[in-house]
Specification:
Number of strands: 4
Structural class: mainly alpha
Number of domains: 1
Number of helices: 10
Distance between the termini: 66 Å
Shape: globular
Helix content: over 70%
Order of helices and strands: HHHHHHEEHHHHEE
Mean pLDDT: 85
Length: 251
């Protein structure tokens, strides 16, 4: 019996050790550099820079929660700005993992993230996309419709605001853990490399074009959604109004 439990315990200790080693920067995965696109090294740069953009925007979005009624337009605008980089980061990490599991040699040589980060990844993606999607839905539905009950869960009334808040709770926990595991590797890949190291990876112009496209899409989306948030701008997410059977709200 002792030998049967020893292997799982050993594997668990190894998984924890690998995660801590990479999170602290004591171990660094080497990303092969390929012509044209840069290969795994180019992918790592694109992912890391996008992650830092997401971090900055997320901090701004979290700050609006201190007065979400008064800062509702900022809350919507920053949420809209988050959508393109979140989509880009999801695409770049999905490409990398798909390339790894499909057996593409450069990505196999680069290796996969530690086990805990691989298990956490899908939760980060689902909670992020769910949070952003429900946020857009709230803006497009308007306050009266968004506050109408869509289900009952354990005796509690659930509306679209509740769903959005639920995704936020999951996102906060998952992304918090993800940040602890990835912030140092991301900084080492980007700002701590120096400009010369970044230029040495082929595909710089392609990555720049992706970033320009991301910024343009984010700006356009922010303008559209801010102009569509009229009912929320009048009352705010925290202003719970009574909604009648006809969908009209009253004070």
């Amino acid at each position: 019996m002792r030998s049967l439990t020893a292997k799982p315990e050993s594997a668990l200790r190894r998984a924890v050790a690998d995660t801590l080693a990479e999170a602290s920067g004591r171990e660094v995965r080497e990303n092969p550099v390929l012509p044209s696109s840069g290969g795994p090294a180019g992918n790592a740069l694109l992912t890391a820079w996008t992650a830092l953009v997401l971090l900055a925007l997320s901090i701004g979005e979290l700050l609006t929660l201190f007065d979400v009624r008064g800062l509702i337009s900022w809350h919507v605008a920053l949420g809209a700005l988050l959508i393109p980089p979140a989509t880009m980061k999801t695409a770049s990490t999905t490409w990398r993992m798909a390339s790894y599991y499909l057996g593409r040699r450069p990505y196999r040589e680069a290796g996969a993230p530690p086990l805990f980060m691989r298990l956490l990844g899908p939760l980060v993606v689902v909670s992020t996309l769910g949070l952003l999607a429900t946020g857009v839905a709230l803006v497009l539905l308007g306050e009266a419709v968004a506050r109408q009950s869509v289900a009952m869960l354990l005796g509690f009334r659930v509306d679209w605001v509740t769903v959005h808040q639920g995704f936020f709770a999951v996102w906060a926990g998952a992304v918090g853990l993800h940040l602890l595991g990835r912030i140092i590797p991301a900084l080492r890949t980007t700002v701590m490399r120096g400009s010369a190291a970044g230029q040495a990876v082929p595909g710089r112009w392609a990555r720049g074009l992706w970033f320009v496209t991301m910024v343009a899409a984010a700006a356009a989306l922010a303008v559209v959604l801010v102009h569509a948030d009229g009912s929320w701008a009048s009352h705010g997410f925290g202003d719970h109004q009574r909604v009648g059977p006809d969908g009209r709200s009253s004070s």
